[in-house]
């Protein structure tokens, strides 16, 4: 029988192995994980050439050609696919409300905008249609981002906020090069009124030692049926790897979040999602999970042709969809409800709570979870309470 410390050491060794997958074309450079080995070149806006972020990234990919870009001129090859990493001077707002959708219940979290696009290649990825191009962009003027956050938190020091970076990119896929989440976790340690969710489909725990308050960071992983992960989420970590990481976080004092989004209308979906819930129950205890979202496949109409072109074997796109009140394509309600109810039922039977639906109506909430956001006191408030617990007495939104 291993003592707790011995078990912890074995876990740490396993994670060192998982993070430092061996790839070093030039042995003096740090190893890159598989999903970053397709990078071909780096673009840098002249104005961010000397920032700490740029210097850090260039130190990690010194073997790739680097082009200095005049940010007012669109670089040639801009439509080139995912092999370009663009370190950009971002001039927009870094802190935003989640775009959500009209007519349906939104969870009310705030986005910290750190960049755009993602080096993974999930067939259903909304970003294929959301942005004009697929160039990987990282906002390298981090000081502006931290300045904006400082001002926002300073204006309302009592206001509790749930923040996340996983809306316009994956929170952690670029972490081995950028260390963005690690910087953000360190910065936010001075703001206990804020909780940061790091949502990902890869395993990277390098931000962990910066978290002075584990209760203010929520590592989050997307969940799907095992055959969807294997076939439709190219480049991602397996479910086992994600859940091992989640368990490691939970054992280190963090609570984790899980996102079944999108639930896909695929063959054998009942068995597939049931298997995933079994795996979750093998790795995590219910009290280690802050919340679990469930969302049915939904997309802007233009995404369908992108999926057909980019991922021709993704047959789920030929299921029957209708146009929802927000203009997005959604599965016919009876199948949507059946799928979501099945996953919710399995999770509840295994003892998991904190379930909520992403972008659904009261009627679907009632059919799936037998309650409505109103009965929970409002979805945003409910999730705040799940995150901040008894400390969350007065929301000053
Ligand atoms: S991990 Fe998320 S952001 Fe990245 S390709 Fe998949 S769905 Fe898109």
Automatic annotation (TrEMBL):
<keyword id="KW-0456">Lyase</keyword>
<dbReference type="InterPro" id="IPR058240">
    <property type="entry name" value="rSAM_sf"/>
</dbReference>
<dbReference type="InterPro" id="IPR007197">
    <property type="entry name" value="rSAM"/>
</dbReference>
<dbReference type="InterPro" id="IPR049539">
    <property type="entry name" value="SPL"/>
</dbReference>
<dbReference type="GO" id="GO:0003913">
    <property type="term" value="F:DNA photolyase activity"/>
</dbReference>
<feature type="domain" description="Radical SAM core">
    <location>
        <begin position="102"/>
        <end position="341"/>
    </location>
</feature>
<dbReference type="Pfam" id="PF20903">
    <property type="entry name" value="SPL"/>
</dbReference>
<dbReference type="GO" id="GO:0051539">
    <property type="term" value="F:4 iron, 4 sulfur cluster binding"/>
</dbReference>
<dbReference type="GO" id="GO:1904047">
    <property type="term" value="F:S-adenosyl-L-methionine binding"/>
</dbReference>
<dbReference type="GO" id="GO:0042601">
    <property type="term" value="C:endospore-forming forespore"/>
</dbReference>
<protein>
    <submittedName>
        <fullName>Spore photoproduct lyase</fullName>
    </submittedName>
</protein>
